[in-house]
Here is the input.
Amino acid sequence: MGADTEQGGGTDTLDRELEELLEQEQVEDGDHDRYSHYVQKEKILESALSGDPVIALCGKVWTPGRDPEKFPVCPECKEIYEAMKD
Here is the structure.
């Protein structure tokens, strides 16, 4: 198998998809100031180290920087998370 053979999935694919999404959407100010969003823990750590934005379960793209415990949970993220648990 060559290095350029796509195996489907993997972090390279996710990173490219995030880059494409960021190119298509502006990182919005506002909503993320009102809610804390659900994001994979490892993505929060990566963002803290790299400064790159993350994508919440609801699709919100932003760079975390505030204490999430000071804000109510995003209702859409919560709904998606609860559905994933079932």
Notes: The first strand starts at residue 54 and ends at 55. Helices lie at 11-24, 31-34, 41-50, 75-85. Strands lie at 54-55, 61-62. Residues 14 and 20 are 10 Å apart (CA to CA).
